[in-house]
């Protein structure tokens, strides 16, 4: 979280924890493998050390989805129960003698001073004489505690919400208008732009860029972590998202739509990037316009080259799996032979995406994809707002997906009607929120549009400088980000409280991973501590262990 260097006032300092002490183990349990795998994804996101329920010795923090029969509720250690579906909520109510009703609510959770995450969802409201709130937002109770016990009940359904946000939204449903355009015997780009603009014009446009749209998944993840901290009363070890000393990340990417964009706009953008010291990712269609090997070699040397389909005709998502694999493989091979470098990543035209495409990319030898927007006011494919609801990379089907977390220039300027200056202001505003939650700012700037013109140069410089001047921003290319995220995901905190890496390659980099301790949660968000030189962390008074 952003409040990484939070300090604890001296009067509150009392206890200290020696690092070599073992942590309270976190044990996950669920009614079935699906629930368990989703709870594991929460734990893997924060990198909290955890095990799956096998044997319980009464000292662990138990996190349960639903109410599996083998779990004894007279546990001595803290228990957190997340209801799964209305039936799960009713079962919890029955077992503890409570009443339950459900209600559609906007949940808001502070994560750092002045920063919050939000989610629009159905909450289960439990009531009963022995119930007290352990975490609430205004009148909305997020975590309940049963008096005289260490049993905690969440009002949010961690499993169903996560599944719905992360997996159901990965496949976008193309609108009939879009299908019609791509079935025409010519490219959708030949449709007169006046018609396209009318069809593609957003109604509410950019005003929908709120935290509950960009990162509802972040709210669920924060609920998971806050519940652990509150229920356990112990510091929870996690691994920082980015390299030691950095609190969020930036990757700059460009999709090159036209030959003019490649030959003129790209040079202008690179000029600014070199001045500021930022390397970027150039996504190029392999068979849309003539490509010179010399230019691609130059792009691969100043930054990196990624695939952007072959013809860029909007038909990629409609092809069979076999054709998808063939098409993205041809794209990679041609770009590799022209640029003389390995091509590891892909960006789909129009940010079209789906699990089948991700699987095809893995089959065709790509390491990462960056085609899913966190949120867009107007998807050209579904003709509505759409996004995957997270601003962090994630692993899917063996490859890293890096969501396009920032609104792209085209959406802000051509769909939203903003000036270039207003677009930069909007991007910086979104980046401030991404920073507070420690996410990845992924910029998509087209050399073919306004930023690639002479008149956009100063604003492009203002945008990049803001990130460059922030020492807490980890600036990397998409390819570097994909490797870093894999490396972090493959590491874990072992029983002695040390970070271990799985592969020998990543062992060399283990020092870059940052062990952090979430020592408290309040209306100011998470309290995060790092190890000092003494190898100790200091805990606020009152934290039971
Ligand atoms: Zn494109």
| pLDDT < 50 stretches | 1-20, 185-192, 198-205, 541-545
Instruction: Tell me, rounded to a whole number, the average pLDDT.
Output: 85
Catalogue the ligands: zinc ion
CATH topology title of the largest domain:
TIM Barrel
Tell me the domain tally.
Answer: 2
Strand order of the largest sheet: 3-2-4-5-10-9-8
Radius of gyration, in angstroms, nearest whole number: 24 Å
Total strands: the figure is: 25
CA-CA gap between termini = 23 Å
Largest sheet: 7 strands, mixed
SS-derived structural category? alpha/beta
Task: Report the total helices.
Answer: 16
Shape: elongated
The CATH superfamily of the largest domain appears as: Glycoside hydrolase/deacetylase
Given this structure, which CATH class of the largest domain is correct? Alpha Beta
Q: Please bin the fraction of helical residues.
A: 25-40%
- Strand proportion: 15-25%
Instruction: Please tell me the CATH architecture of the largest domain by its name.
Output: Alpha-Beta Barrel
Keyword list:
545 residues, Rossmann fold, TIM Barrel, seven-stranded mixed beta sheet, five-stranded parallel beta sheet, 16 helices, 25 strands, disordered C terminus
């Amino acid at each position: 979280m952003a409040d990484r260097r939070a300090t604890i006032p001296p009067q509150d300092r009392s206890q200290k924890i020696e690092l070599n002490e073992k942590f309270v183990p976190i044990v996950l349990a669920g009614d079935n493998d699906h629930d368990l795998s989703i709870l594991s994804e929460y734990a893997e996101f924060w990198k909290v050390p955890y095990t799956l329920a096998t044997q319980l010795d009464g000292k662990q923090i138990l996190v349960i989805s639903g109410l599996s029969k083998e779990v004894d509720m007279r546990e001595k250690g803290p228990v957190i129960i997340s209801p799964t579906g209305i039936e799960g909520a009713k079962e919890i109510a029955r077992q503890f003698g409570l009443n339950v009703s459900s209600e559609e609510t906007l949940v808001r959770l502070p994560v750092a001073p002045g920063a919050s995450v939000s989610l629009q969802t159905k909450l289960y409201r439990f009531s009963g004489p022995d119930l007290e709130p352990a975490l609430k937002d205004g009148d909305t109770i997020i975590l309940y505690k049963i008096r005289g016990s260490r049993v905690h009940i969440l009002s949010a359904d961690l499993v169903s919400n996560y599944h719905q946000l992360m997996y159901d939204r990965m496949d976008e449903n193309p609108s009939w208008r879009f299908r019609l355009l791509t079935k025409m015997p010519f490219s959708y780009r030949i449709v007169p732009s006046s018609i396209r603009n009318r069809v593609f014009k957003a109604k509410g446009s950019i005003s929908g860029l709120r935290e509950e749209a960009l990162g509802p998944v972040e709210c669920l993840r924060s609920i998971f972590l806050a519940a652990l901290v509150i229920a356990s009363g112990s510091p929870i070890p996690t691994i920082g998202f980015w390299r030691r000393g950095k609190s969020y990340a930036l990757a700059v990417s460009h999709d090159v739509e036209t030959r003019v964009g490649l030959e003129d706009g790209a040079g202008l953008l690179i000029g600014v990037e070199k001045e500021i010291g930022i390397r970027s990712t150039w996504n190029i269609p392999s068979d849309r316009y003539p490509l010179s090997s010399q230019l691609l070699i130059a792009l691969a040397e100043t930054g990196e080259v990624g695939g952007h389909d072959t013809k860029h005709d909007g038909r990629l998502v409609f092809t069979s799996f076999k054709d998808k694999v063939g098409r993205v493989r041809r794209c990679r091979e041609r770009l590799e032979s022209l640029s003389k470098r390995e091509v590891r990543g892909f960006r789909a035209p129009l940010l079209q995406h789906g699990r089948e495409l991700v699987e095809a990319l893995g089959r065709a030898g790509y390491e990462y994809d960056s085609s899913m927007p966190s949120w867009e006011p107007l998807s050209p494919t579904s003709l509505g707002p759409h996004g995957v609801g997270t601003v962090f990379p994630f692993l899917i089907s063996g490859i890293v997906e890096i969501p396009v977390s920032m609104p792209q220039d085209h959406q802000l300027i051509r769909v939203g009607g903003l000036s270039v200056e207003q677009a930069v202001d909007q991007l910086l505003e979104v980046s401030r929120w991404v920073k507070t939650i420690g996410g990845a700012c992924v910029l998509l700037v087209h050399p073919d549009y306004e930023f690639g013109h002479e008149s956009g140069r100063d604003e492009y410089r203002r945008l990049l400088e803001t990130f460059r001047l922030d020492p807490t921003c980890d600036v990397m290319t998409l390819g570097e980000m994909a490797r870093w995220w894999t490396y972090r995901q493959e590491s874990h905190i072992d029983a002695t409280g040390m970070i271990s890496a799985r592969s020998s390659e990543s062992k060399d980099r283990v020092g870059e991973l940052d062990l952090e301790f979430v020592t408290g949660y309040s209306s100011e968000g998470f309290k995060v501590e790092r190890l000092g030189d003494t190898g100790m962390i200091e805990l606020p008074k009152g934290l039971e262990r």
